[in-house]
């Protein structure tokens, strides 16, 4: 079976989840994997018709990770927390760092790869896949 997400931090108005591979931050009707919103509804049942039930706000999730990847997901428990975190993201107060595990061979002398990741704002909801630029 698919490994369950784990709550890493629990604050009054937000949580941090460790998302394992096989889970999807569901924003559309069609799903490729286990919907993270179902896990959030079970984790936060007292929320009722709150942000966890709002698909247009990604069920309170501030960002997404690809289904095959794992990592931390920041989730707002309320609309106030969601918009506060959105402001922090937009103003650069909240910083995201990524670590990538690659399979295959690389020169033994290679210690680090530095590449800029650009986000294109031309998708149907204003967000398209990112690309790595040299």
Question: In short, what is this structure?
Answer:
This protein is an alpha+beta fold. The chain has helices at residues 36-43, 79-90; strands spanning 6-10, 14-19, 23-24, 34-35, 71-76, 116-119, 130-133.
List the helices and strands and how they pair.
Elements: E1 6-10, E2 14-19, E3 23-24, E4 34-35, H1 36-43, E5 71-76, H2 79-90, E6 116-119, E7 130-133
Parallel strand pairs: 3-4
Antiparallel strand pairs: 1-2, 2-5, 6-7
Task: Report on this structure.
- Helix content is 15%, strand content 22%.
- It has 2 helices and 7 strands.
- The strands form 3 sheets. The chain has a 3-stranded antiparallel sheet with strand order 1-2-5. A two-stranded parallel sheet has the order 3-4.
- The N and C termini lie far apart (38 Å).
- The mean pLDDT is 78.
Total number of helices = 2
For the biggest β-sheet, the strand order reads 1-2-5
Helix content: 10-25%
Share in β-strands: 15-25%
Name the structural class: alpha+beta
For the termini, the CA-CA separation is 38 Å
Count of individual beta strands: 7
Features:
single chain, 134 residues, alpha+beta, two-stranded parallel ribbon, 15% helix, globular
